[in-house]
Automatic annotation (TrEMBL):
Cofactor requirements of the protein: FAD
Source superkingdom: Eukaryota
Record key words, sorted: Disulfide bond, FAD, Flavoprotein, Oxidoreductase
UniProt-listed Enzyme Commission number(s): 1.8.3.2
Record's protein name: Sulfhydryl oxidase
Gene Ontology molecular function, alphabetical: flavin adenine dinucleotide binding; flavin-dependent sulfhydryl oxidase activity
Cellular component GO terms held in the UniProt record: mitochondrion
Every ERV/ALR sulfhydryl oxidase domain range: 6-108
Catalytic reactions of this protein: 2 R'C(R)SH + O2 = R'C(R)S-S(R)CR' + H2O2
Enzyme class: oxidoreductase
Keyword S-adenosyl-L-methionine in annotation: no
Amino acid sequence: KAKVECPPSKSLLGDSSWNLLHSMVAWYPDRPTIEQQTKMKNFMEALAMFYPCSYCAADFQENQKKSPVKTETREDLCIWLCEQHNLVNEKLGKKLFKCDLKTLDERWRKSSDPDCNK
Ligand code: FAD
């Protein structure tokens, strides 16, 4: 049985958060209503305010000021989030992800990798 981290480490928290966020935007509507767009903007803003790592949250707020969340289409939102994640990857010296919808959908929405759902 996997060891439970109490409280979760920065790495586990980050990985869990990105899993939720990329999956959530992968299923965002192609043509969202104004209400859906507003809710998504509020969600990302609140996440940057309450993310439970103070310097991660501060940077996420700063990055959202420079590049406000794009909610007009699913593609816009998926690419925006990918770029936000890449800013963190860059900061941590991790590999950058290719931010186009086809690659993102393959990873987060309809994987053809037979090992992915094991
Ligand atoms: P993760 O970066 O957690 O990525 C999980 C999976 O997402 C990867 O395996 C890959 O398949 C996929 N992926 C990678 N990049 C992308 C992308 N650009 N688009 C789509 N999919 C992608 N940690 C810090 O130490 N300092 C920080 O300042 C910091 N800020 C953060 C801010 C936010 C908003 C979040 C959610 C997390 C932050 N983290 C921060 C955590 C950090 O991003 C990682 O989650 C953590 O280091 C664990 O990394 P990982 O190697 O497990 O992969």
